[in-house]
Amino acid sequence: MNSKFKIWLSAARLRTLPLSVSGIIMGNALAVQSIDFSYSIFILSLFTAIGFQIISNFANDYGDGIKGTDNNLRLGPERTFQRGLLKASELKKGIIICSIISIFLSIILIYIALGSNSFLVSLLFILLAFSSVISAIKYTLGNSAYGYSGFGDLFVFIFFGIVSVLGAYYLQSKTLDLRAICFAISIGLLCVGVLNLNNMRDIANDRNSKKNTLVVILGIQKSKLYHYSLIIISAITLLIGVGVNQLLNHQFYLLIYFPLLIHFFKVSKIKESKDYDSLLKELSLTTFFISLFLFFNFSLN
Question: How many domains does the chain contain in total?
C-alpha cells in the first residue's frame, strides 16, 4: 500500500467511523420493516455520514495542530499534522475535497429519497447537510471553534444523535414518531459519552492549551457524574424506544444493556486520565453494536 495513502487513512482515523454511522443504522432499524425500505438510501446515508466524520477528523487534526493543542503532553494517539506527516495545506485540501464529495452524496441521497415533489423538505435536508459540514469544520477551526468553548457536547448530541437518527428515519419513512425520538436521544447521549471520555483523558493538556471543553469547565469528578447520567438516560430512552413489552417477551434484547453496565463499572474504577483512552473504543463499539443489533432484530421481526 502506498505510504501516502496510509498517512491519509491515519488522518481519517478509521476507529471513529463505527460511531459516526451508529445513528444512521439506528434510524434505518426503525424503518427496515417497511415494504418501502430502500437499501440504496441506507447505503448512501452511511457513506454520507462517513464523509462528514472524515471532514471532522481532518479538521480536528489541522485545527488542534496549528493551535498547539496536539503536543507531546497529549495522551491520545499522535495525529498526522503533529507528527509532520501532512502539511497544513494538504489537510486544507483534504477538508475541501471531502466537503465537496459529502455535499454531492447528500444531494444524491436527498433526491433519491424525496424526489422532486418535496421541495421544502429537500431544502431543509440540504441545509442540514451544509450545517453538518460547517459543524464538522468549526469544532476546532477558527477563533470561535465551539470545541474550545464547552459546546462540543451539544453539537455532538445534535448531529450524531438527533440529526443522524431522525434524518435517516425520515428519509426512509417520510415521518417521525416517539420511538425515533427516543432512539435519537439514546444514540446522541452515547456519542456525547465518547467525547466526554476523550475530554476526561485530555483534561490536563486541554486546560494548559486553553481548550475549554465541558470537562475542563466542570472538573474531573463532576465530569464523571455527568458521564454516568449520559449512560443512565441513554439506557432509559433506549428502553422506551424498544418497549417494555418487547423486552419482556424477547429477553435477548437485554443483551444491549450488558456492555453499558460493564462500561459503567469500568469508568467508576478509573483513577488515571490515560486509562480513559481504552474505554473510548469500547463505548464507540458498544454504540455501534447496539444500533446493529437492533437493525438485525427489527429486520428479522
Answer: 1
Residue length of the chain:
301
Is the residue at 63 inside a domain? yes
Q: Which three cell numbers stand for residue 232?
A: 443512565
CATH number of the domain residue 110 falls in: 1.10.600
How wide is the angle at C-alpha 211 spanned by C-alphas 185 and 228, nearest 5°? 35
Q: For residue 157, tell me if it sits in a domain.
A: yes
> CA nearest 102: which of 12, 4, 185, 2?
12
Tens-digit pLDDT string for the chain (301 aa): 568 888 888 888 888 899 999 999 999 999 998 888 999 999 999 999 999 999 999 988 887 777 766 666 566 667 787 787 888 889 999 999 999 999 999 999 999 999 877 889 999 999 999 999 999 898 888 777 888 888 999 999 999 999 999 999 999 999 999 999 999 999 999 999 999 999 999 898 888 888 899 999 999 999 999 999 999 999 999 999 988 777 766 777 788 889 999 999 999 999 888 889 889 999 999 999 999 999 998 888 7
Number of other CB atoms surrounding residue 73 within 10 Å: 12
Q: Please check whether residue 260 lies inside any domain of the structure.
A: yes
**Domain assignment present for 2:** no
> Which 8-state DSSP code applies to residue 142?
S
Nearest to 107 by CA among 90, 92, 129, 140: 129
DSSP string, 243-276: -HHHHHH-GGGGGGTHHHHHHHHHHHH--SGGGG
Contact 18, 288 (CB under 8 A): yes
Q: How far is 51 from 100, CA to CA, in rounded Å? A: 10
- Structural domain of 138: 15-288
